[in-house]
Design a protein that fits this description.
101 residues; elongated; 38% strand; 3-stranded antiparallel β-sheet; mainly beta
Length: 101
């Protein structure tokens, strides 16, 4: 069992549970088959963040250049947010502030 994110215009629109990524469907790898079936870009995502940095969620951005899922930008008190390119997660520029939804 694996999880797959469907992407339109760089934004995740749905995440599904599908067959294991090591299996093929009609001779195609799972990302290609699911993508063709839905006529959308499809990328595997992982709960333990072992691929593509973060588990995808609806509204996340898919950065194709860096092959990373990035959560929507949230507020951070009166501080600015920066994207940590080692983790592709938003961080407050002041340690005393926390990211809040």
């Amino acid at each position: 069992m694996a999880h797959y994110a469907f992407i339109t215009d760089g934004i995740v629109t749905e995440v599904i549970t599908g067959i294991d990524e090591t299996e093929n469907i009609e001779g195609l790898d799972t990302e290609t088959w699911y993508g063709n079936f839905r006529n959308q870009t499809c990328k595997r995502t992982s709960y333990n963040n072992k691929i593509r940095y973060n588990y995808a969620g609806i509204g996340f951005t898919y950065d194709a250049v860096n092959d990373a899922f990035i959560a929507p930008k949230l507020t951070c008190g009166h501080s600015a947010l920066t994207l940590n390119t080692a983790t592709y997660r938003w961080e407050c520029d002041k340690a005393e502030h926390e990211i809040v939804p």
